[in-house]
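--- STAGE predict ---
source: upstream dedup step, 1 unique chain passed
mode: sequence only
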Amino acid sequence: MKHTSNHSLPRRSTLGLLAASGLALAAGMPQLASAQAAFPSRQVTLVVPFPPGGGPDLAARIIGEKLAPRLGQPVVVDNKPGAGALVGASFVAKAPADGHTLLLTPNTMVISPHVLPPGAGGGVDVHKDLAPVIAPATTPLVLVANPSLGANNLKAALEAARKSPGLPYGSAGNGSPMHFAGEMFKRSTKLDLMHVPYKGVAPSITASLAGEVKLLYVGLGGAVPHIKAGKLVPLAVTEARRSELLPEVPTATEQGVPGVEVNAWYGVFAPAATPAATIARINREINEVIKMPEVRDKLMAAGIEVAGGSPQVLEGFMKADNQRYGTLARELNIKAD
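--- STAGE serialize ---
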């Protein structure tokens, strides 16, 4: 009996300690969960997967400036270009899923997997590894010309292109919406044009200003100052109807070139496992930011139109573009160089 008692006492004591520890852990769980769920608790990084100076970068900086005081934390824009937005997308997908690292990208990210080799940009699956947050803005695509082409409208540009077989046109990169617009334009007009991809909107504009390419498909965001200064001539917008940002510029269809309808949207994404409450908070704050008159005015001055809405709206954009551009990539034989 004494032997049994000597063994049973420590067991009861150990069980008691474990129970007490369990109660202490349970008591501390709400505080622990609260600490883990706290957002934001530090700087928020808004990754833009293209170089500075283009539409996505401008949108990120305009929105980030007003988002910071609403979150009570700094919002810093970090440019990580490469692989048609997939480098930046991969970086964000691998970041801690706590809302402090976000991606602001054009729909190039959805298109790139259809034209780049498998595994490009780190092998990110943009549909599984990222969570849609909000589509804060859109921008019309426009065909512009260097003034040296001598064309003030689309008809004159077509005539100039027919006289110069192999005339180069620029875009923001392989698989970009601009690239697709250019190839759809070629198919519709049967023109002999040579595609010259650049690493983002800003470098493509720089090349066009320098006369490296006489024609350029570009998102209006980033091109507006050069259009206003007369350094780039807008020839056509690639949407079903005219843009309120360039009401005087006809669509390609209006000018006898049907089938060239491409638009660009900007989406904000978080790592896939980000808590729903955090995504809802970011969505709510950005929706409020883009309602501010000063933000709308700055975006519109930069050639960017305000959008907004729920994460489901952005998810719908993604699904529609994934299907459409997957089909177009096959039809137009668009691949990475």
